[in-house]
Structures are given as structure tokens and as C-alpha cells.
């Protein structure tokens, strides 16, 4: 898909095509240290070549911890963190969301936070001298979710799944 790198650029990864594949991002990446399959240089290359069938369904794009180490060190100021964020956003729009993120987003829809508040959490906090977790204004959260169309994005069909 030769239009894909342009789509990534428009989605916030403007500098995708100035990457000269030095690998500094991968060498700086703390996630790569624990999982060598996570390789930001390769993700950028694959995306710039428009190999969407490799990039979009891949679990690897979801491993970026958004630490910005690569962005600090990239000699071409590619801002790989932003490029990978743009790729993730395009993946979501095309129906590819990692199940873990779906689960977390579902919790935000239901509880207004990424986990259900359980009494034992506040009891543990009290034991440690910490205040209780403040209540969530679910109405406000719901408004944000409606404006950002999160539910629709999560329900998007995978490209080519034919509905
Ligand atoms: Fe490309 Fe920058 Fe990564 Fe080098 S550090 S491979 S120029 S994104």
C-alpha cells in the first residue's frame, strides 16, 4: 500500500520517510532489551514500504512503552515514538486493536478507569497510610468517550473482513 506512509505522516508520524535506518532507536529501546522481536527501526521500515499486512495486525506495535528514548536519540529527528503512535492509531481505525488494549478500554467504558475499584484496594491503601482512591465521574468519562468515538473504534471491523 504505497499510500500508507503518507497516511502515517498525516496521522502524526510526519518524519517517517526521513529515517535512514541507522538503528539507534532499536539500540536505545528498553523494550528491545527484554524482547528482541520489538524493533522500532524495522517497524518504521516496514511501514514506510507500505507493508500494511505485516504492520497493522502485529502485536509488536503495541509493545512501545512511550518512553521517548528513541525520540531523544534519533539523529534524523524522526520522532519514532510519534510514528509508532500514528501506526497504532491507523491500526485501530482499520480494526486491529490488541486484545489487551480492548480489555483496558472496555474497563474505562464500564468503570471510568482501567480496573474496577475493589474495596480491598482501598483497605490495602489504608494499611499503607494512603488515602482512598477518589471516585470517578463516570458521566464525564462517558462524554469524553463519546466525543472521541472510542466505542465505535473498538467495534470497527478488521479491514477486508467483509461486513
Ligand atoms: Fe530511523 Fe531515527 Fe531509528 Fe535511526 S534512530 S533507524 S533514523 S528512526
Short synopsis of the structure:
By secondary structure, the protein is mainly alpha-helical. 53% of the residues lie in helices and 0% in strands.
What would you note in describing this structure?
The protein is mainly alpha-helical and 163 residues long. It has helices at 4-10, 24-28, 30-34, 40-48, 52-55, 69-73, 80-93, 99-111, 119-127, 138-147, 150-155. The longest helix is centred in the middle third of the chain and has 14 residues, at 80-93. The structure holds iron/sulfur cluster.
Throw out a few tags for this protein:
163 residues; mainly alpha; 53% helix; 0% strand; globular; binds iron/sulfur cluster
Produce the secondary structure layout.
Blueprint lengths: L3 H7 L13 H5 L1 H5 L5 H9 L3 H4 L13 H5 L6 H14 L5 H13 L7 H9 L10 H10 L2 H6 L8
Bound molecules: iron/sulfur cluster.
The site of iron/sulfur cluster has 15 residues, from α2 and α4.
Query: What molecules are bound to this protein?
Result: iron/sulfur cluster
Order of helices and strands: HHHHHHHHHHH
Low-confidence stretches: none
> Which descriptor suits the 3D outline?
globular
Helix content: 40-55%
What's the overall average pLDDT, rounded?
92
Kindly, what is the distance between the CA atoms of the first and last residues, rounded to a whole number of angstroms? 21 Å
Count all strands and give the number.
0
CA radius of gyration is 19 Å
User: DSSP strand (E) fraction?
Assistant: under 5%
Largest sheet: none
Structural class: mainly alpha
Q: Number of helical runs? A: 11
Amino acid at each position: 500500500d504505497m499510500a500508507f506512509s503518507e497516511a502515517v505522516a498525516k496521522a502524526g508520524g510526519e518524519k517517517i520517510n526521513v529515517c535512514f535506518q541507522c538503528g539507534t532507536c532499536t539500540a536505545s529501546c528498553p523494550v528491545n532489551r527484554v524482547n528482541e522481536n520489538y524493533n522500532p527501526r524495522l517497524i518504521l521500515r516496514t511501514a514506510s514500504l507500505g507493508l500494511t499486512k505485516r504492520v497493522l495486525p502485529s502485536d509488536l506495535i503495541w509493545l512501545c512503552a512511550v518512553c521517548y528514548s528513541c525520540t531523544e536519540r534519533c539523529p534524523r529527528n524522526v520522532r519514532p515514538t510519534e510514528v509508532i503512535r500514528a501506526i497504532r492509531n491507523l491500526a485501530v481505525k482499520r480494526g486491529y486493536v490488541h486484545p489487551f488494549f480492548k480489555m483496558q478500554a472496555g474497563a474505562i467504558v464500564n468503570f471510568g478507569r482501567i480496573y474496577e475499584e475493589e474495596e480491598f484496594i482501598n483497605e490495602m491503601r489504608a494499611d499503607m497510610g494512603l488515602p482512598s482512591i477518589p471516585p470517578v465521574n463516570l458521566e464525564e468519562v462517558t462524554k469524553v468517550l463519546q466525543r472521541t468515538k472510542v466505542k465505535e473504534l473498538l467495534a470497527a471491523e478488521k479491514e477486508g473482513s467483509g461486513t
